[in-house]
């Protein structure tokens, strides 16, 4: 797991990089050059005009949004965001390379990629926000919006991306009168390549994790990682020697911070904490002063802010006016050993990419390669969800939202195969990629 790779500093040669600074200036130059090239090639047609609002939107993000995402060290560059960019770049590059070898204009791929990328990111983020809406309910509207925009540290759903990108693909093909199914066949392997690299980003971020595992390749995620936090909330592991009531989907009411278990021989037990104690205040290095504790969430959030051997934690309980002091004996805790579900998904997507590339020259109808992708991927995703534990059942079933969508996608694939079976054989584009 490597959530943050490095930071870009706030200033360069005394001038701000983000906001009204260097990055906005570079983006303005890039946009001007891009528009000049497009105007020379195409004139001021509808497609060129379509770039204007998107370029302006990105400029506004650099000017107004990026400064809000900076911390004390600058703008954090997340492993998830880097792998996401690598996935997009690799996917577009593969599609453009194959288009060129087929005698097609790769400019078509670059234009399509611009629209699909924006729509895919928006769709993936909106899907995640809807699925995990309580996580975005912050004290102020500004904080909520900021949390919604920080997608580079995780929080994108593949199926949401598919919906957004699919809508953009349909709009693009209709606008430019392109053969939609043939285009879908061409980019299908690229989609799987991008997904494979994106899943590596999930591993860097610690999201999309699997369940408990005792196999040799099981992994443990660090303190405060998403798997570790979820295991603490579900009382599957001790947090500094303490457990509180399990937080699951059935817990709706506010739960008082009463200790339900104390790890034998732990520093918490040595400090005098006992089962049944209700915590009312926690203080320690890592917190901004004593924290009033009213709920289990308050207690867990405070304890998760404190880690490292030698750090002290002071607990005030409801039955005592004197704080109980505990000194951490070990370095930060970690999650249980779990399946590296992100790596499983990356391998699965990479293999499917290779299979689609191998099958492409043998397709009998336009849309067949795409149909294979939307048949095989939902099946593998459904199976992967059995291993994953980050999503719970929805709609009154034990199936996660991704499993429900996988079933719907598979039904759609059946309909697509039926439609293709009624079409005459052949493709509007070359049957195979020519040799270089």
What features would you describe in this structure?
The structure is a single chain. The chain has helices at residues 22-42, 46-69, 79-101, 106-131, 141-149, 158-176, 180-205, 226-233, 267-271, 296-304, 341-359, 368-387, 401-421; strands at residues 4-8, 11-12, 15-16, 75-78, 242-243, 261-262, 279-284, 291-292, 312-317, 324-327. It is an alpha+beta fold and 436 residues long. It folds into 2 domains: 4-18 and 70-212 and 338-421, no CATH class; 226-327, Pdz3 Domain. The strands form 4 sheets. It has a 4-stranded antiparallel beta sheet. It is globular and about 80 Å long.
How would you summarize this macromolecular structure in one to three sentences?
This protein has helices at residues 22-42, 46-69, 79-101, 106-131, 141-149, 158-176, 180-205, 226-233, 267-271, 296-304, 341-359, 368-387, 401-421, and strands spanning 4-8, 11-12, 15-16, 75-78, 242-243, 261-262, 279-284, 291-292, 312-317, 324-327.
Question: What are the main properties of this structure?
Answer:
436 residues, alpha+beta, 2 domains, 4-stranded antiparallel beta sheet, 13 helices, 10 strands, globular
